[in-house]
Amino acid sequence: MAEKAKVYTYTVINSASEEFKDKVPYVVAVLENKNGRFASFIEGYKDGINVDIGMEVEFSRFDEAQNPIYKF
Amino acid sequence: MIGIGETKMGKLPDRSLRDLIKEAGSKAIEDAGIEKERIQALYMSNFNGQYLCYQGHMGPLASEVLELGNIPTIRCEGACASGSLAFRQGLFAIASGMYDVVLVGGVEKMTHRATEEVTTGIASAEDFQIEARVGITFPSIFAMIANRYFYEYRNVREEMAMCAVSNHYNASLNPDAQMQKTITAEQVKNGFPVSSPLTVFDCSLVTDGAAFVVLAATDAAKEVCKKRIVEVVGSGHAGDTLTIGTKKSITAFAATINAAKEAYNMAGLSPADIDFAEVHDCFTITQIINIEDLGFFEKGKGGDAVASGKIALNAEKPINPSGGLKAKGHPIGATGISQIYEVVTQLRGEAGARQLKKADIGMNHNIGGTAATCVVNIFKGW
Prior knowledge:
The complex is a heterodimer. Chain A is mainly β.
């Protein structure tokens, strides 16, 4: 997994599914790296953090389902 | 199209799936003016009954409730496009010559479950493993689409709010609509921020409801139909990848563009020929993208069209005279049929306070998931 990826688009979620309702507010994004685009959760969002299309985020870990999780 | 029927859309805690099917199905058969023995097949649409109501096998359920005997029946599922997919199956059955009269119905019951449970259920229309499991909800998918649209074209936050305002106004003239009150753009923008930039007022409704239509071959329709005959002159269905990360563009939907092209070609019509359309406004940004993808307005100019009043009742291109998914309601499995109900109602001149002055050719546009499925149908009144 590439260390960094660029934000292709994103959103701050305040209304979530049962599994994620305790995590709001949180950021999900479509990220872009040399392999293409993919959806991800971006860890470390706090109210007031600036999120923009084109900004870089860092790879953090794979979750239990082997999905890549990134961080600010 | 010889018969239509629907329930009032809304939060209907006292009404069961059976009850909703009974009312809408019976109304459609009665409207068609036929004995139910003439119905040769039933195509049922439902999206999430197995999760939200623990009820599958919707075909025989509806057939039993409507006392249709031993006719063949099947359930169609394609997320929010399920209704229009079932309609296409009915259309094929008639067009093939296999049957002369078929019934198509859709039903969904959602409002008895908590918001988080409904959110989980709807997330099954995305990729549950690689999207829902990282916290992606449906509103968040279209919120990401909106942010990307703002980046590629311009910020249409104001125009998105105006779509909601327009649909609420139209719904206030529709007795079957879930929402009967108008709202302001300020209310939309200041609503609970479900998923930025979308507030709760940018999102379609969680709805209980059912809608049915009766389709007949042209000869049979001429024989029984006492109202204006409505002919299906064009129909298109196209797909795309399931996930948001894999689409070439997320600000124009390839499934819509391809389905519309097929429907326009079949009908021999162009976007300018369409008097009005029911388009899939699952979120306000979707309505803006749809009216561009369907060829009504130039790409990137959908917001301008909304702002200049071109989509209002009796304006240049009336969009969602019923109130749309946003304000009539979005009973997922019934939605496509509910759109068709409105198109036929308008073409017959039976839409009451929201009746359009020019209603000879109408369209319904129904997408499923992240525009992974799209059906477009064009209807013409004789």
